[in-house]
Amino acid sequence: MTQQEWQHIYQLVGAAMEVHNELGRGMAESIYQEALAHEFLMREIPFLKEKPIHVYYKNILLEKVFVPDFICDDVIVELKAVEEITTEHRAQLFNYLRITRKTKGLLINFGERNLHCERYLFSDEDDGFILLTNNNYRAYID
Q1: 45-78 burial, b for 16+ CB within 10 Å, e for fewer?
Q2: What gap in Å lies between CA 16 and CA 40, rounded to an integer?
Q3: What is the pairing mode between strands 75-80 and 116-123?
Q4: How confident is the model over 35-53, as pLDDT tens digits?
Q5: 25: burial class by Cβ within 10 Å (0-12, 13-18, 19+)?
Q6: Which of 119, 15, 31 is nearest to 75 (CA)?
Q7: CB under 8 Å to 100, separation ≥6 — which residues?
Q8: Distance separating alpha carbons of residues 116 and 124, to the nearest angstrom
Q9: What is the end-to-end Cα distance of the chain in Å, rounded?
Q10: CA dihedral sign of residues 58, 63, 69, 73
């Protein structure tokens, strides 16, 4: 990941922080999604909202699609408004990353007292996910 890509992730999280500061916790996920879309627009951050991701099985297009909350350039952004992030929430983001072959994902929870954001890198080569923290992110910047 380049320094510029890290800065982009930082901007996305900053926009989410602004939404959380303004609305607090306790709203429906759809409210946060709409507010974050407005914040992205105000900050001139390009995004696609709820863009369906098609899934193929043995070169056959399946009827079911995945719909992430946002795709911001090469970052999948999945929103939650729950008391606590669970393994199922992470698995949802991981599936989006696998299917799109994108390497960066954000899982943002507006339901906690403080905004909770998990930043992930995905490696298609080993089908692995790395949680980026304040302690390790520098090791993944080129």
Answers
A1: bebebeeeeeeeeeeeeeeeebebbbbbeebbbb
A2: 9
A3: unpaired
A4: 999 999 999 999 999 999 9
A5: middle
A6: 119
A7: 53, 71, 76
A8: 26
A9: 6
A10: positive
Q: Which two tokens stand for residue 72?
A: 């911001």
Report which of 49, 53, 51 is spatially closest to residue 62, judged by C-alpha positions. 53
The 10s digit of each residue's pLDDT in 71-125 is 999 999 999 999 999 999 999 999 999 999 899 999 999 999 999 999 999 988 8
Tell me the pTM.
0.92
DSSP H/E element including 11? helix 3-23
User: In degrees rounded to 5, what are phi and psi of residue 3?
Assistant: -60, -40
- CB of 82 closer than 8 Å to CB of 89: yes
76 DSSP assignment: E
